[in-house]
Amino acid sequence: MSLNKQTTVALAVSAALLAGIGSGYWLALKRHPASDINSADGAVQSTANGRKALYWYDPMVPNQHFDKPGKSPFMDMQLVAKYADEGGDATNVKIDPSVVQNLGLRLAKVERGVLAAPVEVVGSVQWNDRQVAVVQTRSAGFVERVYARAPGDVIGKDAPLADLLVPDWAGAQTEFLALRSTGDSSLLQAARERLKLLGMSPELVAQVEATGQTRPVITIHAPIAGVIQTLDVRSGMSLGAGMPLARINGLDPVWLEAAVPESLASTLAVGNPAQAMLAAYPGVRLAGKVIAILPETNTDSRTLRVRVELPNHDGRLRAGMFAQLGLGTSNDAPTLLVPSEAVIRTGTRNIVLAALDGGRFQPVEVKLGREAGGKVVVLDGLAEGQSVVASGQFLIDSEASLKGVLARQFDASGNMPMSKPQATTASTPAATLNEADGKVESISGKEITLSHGPVKSLGWGAMTMPFQLAQSSLAAGIQKGDRVHFGFRAGGGGYVIEAMSKTGSAP
Questions:
Q1: pLDDT of 492-504, one tens digit each?
Q2: Which residues contact 352 (CB under 8 A, 6 or more apart)?
Q3: Count of C-beta atoms within a 10 Å radius of residue 76
Q4: In CATH, what number does 132-249 get?
Q5: pTM reported for the whole predicted model
Q6: Homologous superfamily in CATH for domain 434-504
Q7: Closest-CA residue to 424 (of 465, 389, 393, 454)
């Protein structure tokens, strides 16, 4: 074969190969759209049912994203797909039903009922200060005899305490008896009144008049039954007019005083029933009632003093005894109730996760009332019959934080912001540098929490949120309370500060 002929054949073969390659490339484009050709892995962007998956994640570590399905490196479970069609309402979050079932998510109904559980506190028995008798002398004299009494003794009414000699009484009584023999009724009445003014009882005056004999010695008796608290009299003592001799406190009824948290003040009222159980008498319940709520609050313990009156006919209750006290409440009207465990307490607000249709959950801010027996009163935010998450909130809370639901629903002032920041995923391209001014709330390692003002480039309102520091050196010389100007970008499942400067020092 000649050289020209060989060259012609080679050119023909080359043309055929090029035509075949071009035809194959055209067929490939025909069968697979450009979006699939450009994908590194078709399985990463779609699933068997045709839904587009943005990434895969472990529900226990939701901030870590993976570009393909498989087993979680953190837990013994399969990764969960995050689909593009799960955006929905920006104020709620949707959880895969299989994940909800695997993690044992439990719902509860908002119900209307009475939170009538008694207030359980500890109290101590006190003497009844409304039953106090003070024994005093009315005239100066001397103590001739003291009966066998001592502080702490329990005595009955009219029990003798001491015999007193009153010299002034002897002269006054002698004068009275002399006037009696004159027969002048007006003088006799005047003398009789003088004896009473000197401190003699009408019975003693009548006895002197009837017997015609002076009685300068008088026996002092207990005016009430009770316990002797003080006894300041001894044989041979000289006494002045008005000098206290003894103090006696009654024993029936007694008081039981308890400290009640001021948050429960609205549930108490004078006249409410009370039940007391004392360690000294196991199994015995004593019924009483609230007789006083003292007007002063203990500023150290933030408690109110409540006084309960208990009968003590047999004298078994003694001052200083401890008792478990159950106080009945006064506001037993039906109210909305949810389980206490359903409330997420952030410190600045109380959040409940309400269950919506289609496996969606929405955070709702609620106003709470009294709490008892595992239930808490909801004053505002929910309606009767709604379903709320009672357990497993950590899953939804992690997902909501990942999507920024809570930050979008409530701004720093607790109101709905005008604009809502968009969630950032692994597939979101790097954003431009966003700038804002803020105040440092806390710094921990490479994480800093800022209360910042509006971010115009993102349409955010003012809020408090955490950021990651691109470098720890950015926080050099900055401390809690300082005001800063900073620039940040979205990345790594959150927001990263790349520039920061201090504009004001902490007060």
A1: 667 889 888 888 8
A2: 338, 342, 343, 344, 363, 364, 366, 378, 381, 382, 388, 389
A3: 6
A4: 2.40.50.100
A5: 0.47
A6: Copper binding periplasmic protein CusF (2.40.50.320)
A7: 465
